[in-house]
Amino acid sequence: MTKVAIIGNGVFGGKIKNCIQDSVQFVEPDDADWVIIATPNDLHYEQVEKWLIKRKNIFCEKPLTLTEKSSKELFLLADF
Questions:
Q1: H or E segment at 16?
Q2: Would you give the DSSP letter of residue 80?
Q3: Using CA of residue 54, residue 14, residue 26, residue 57, what is the dihedral sign?
Q4: Which of 19, 25, 54, 66 has a CA 20 to 30 Å removed from the CA of 34?
Q5: How confident is the model at residue 9 (pLDDT cuts 50, 70, 90)?
Q6: CB 74, CB 48: distance < 8 Å
Q7: How many other C-beta atoms can be found within 10 angstroms of the C-beta atom of residue 17?
Q8: Among candidates 63, 20, 58, which has minimal Cα distance to 36?
């Protein structure tokens, strides 16, 4: 079973959790296969960067970042 962590317990994070709860196992981010970022937009860059450095798969609600430059930085950090 896929191990998932959701960072952000607001409306969007709750909706995602309700939609996937029957098909995944929720764990702490360090133990997750996927980290879902569902926080305010201005926190996305910092959080996505942190989990990419730890080589986690990331799903981030849009927008990824607030600028094109910072999105490109994260893109280059990701291992494709």
A1: helix 11-20
A2: -
A3: negative
A4: 66
A5: confident
A6: yes
A7: 16
A8: 58
